[in-house]
């Protein structure tokens, strides 16, 4: 199993707007080969800290997703988001191989 976290900070007053964007996400990743799960996490103490967690069967499946046209299309849409402050945010990405359950 392979887990990827993309963590970013938004102004606290915009956190709910970002959460709603992800609640209404395209779900294109859901059809990617090896995709298992999507979670959106919000830090309880720092409400502007949001983490997208994706789980794939393997690292190779994740890399296939990242190289896909659908991945590129989603991220191109994000760059065109009307709120340029949010569109300009670059997440910190961390990748994890699950070694025990």
Entry keywords:
Alpha-Beta Plaits; four-stranded antiparallel beta sheet; 4 strands
Provide an overview of this structure.
With 101 residues, this protein is α+β, with helices and mostly antiparallel strands. It has a single domain, classed as Alpha-Beta Plaits, CATH 3.30.70.100. It has four helices and four strands; from the N terminus they run E-H-E-E-H-H-H-E. The N and C termini lie close together (10 Å). The mean pLDDT is 94.
Topology:
Layout: E1 2-9, H1 15-23, E2 35-42, E3 49-56, H2 59-66, H3 69-79, H4 84-87, E4 92-97
Antiparallel strand pairs: 1-3, 1-4, 2-3
Describe what is shown at a glance:
This protein is an alpha+beta fold and 101 residues long. It has helices at residues 15-23, 59-66, 69-79, 84-87, and strands at residues 2-9, 35-42, 49-56, 92-97.
Strand content: 25-35%
The tally of domains stands at 1
Total strands:
4
Structural classification = alpha+beta
* Major beta sheet summary: 4 strands, antiparallel
Count of alpha/pi helices: 4
């Amino acid at each position: 199993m392979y887990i990827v976290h993309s963590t970013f900070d938004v102004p606290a007053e915009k956190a709910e707007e970002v959460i709603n964007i992800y609640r209404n996400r395209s779900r294109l990743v859901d059809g990617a080969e090896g995709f298992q799960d999507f979670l959106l996490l919000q830090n309880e103490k720092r409400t502007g800290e949001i983490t997208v967690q994706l789980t794939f069967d393997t690292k190779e499946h994740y890399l296939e997703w990242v190289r896909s046209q659908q991945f590129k299309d989603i991220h191109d849409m994000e760059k065109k988001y009307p709120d340029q402050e949010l569109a300009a945010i670059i997440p910190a990405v961390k990748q994890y191989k699950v070694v025990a359950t």
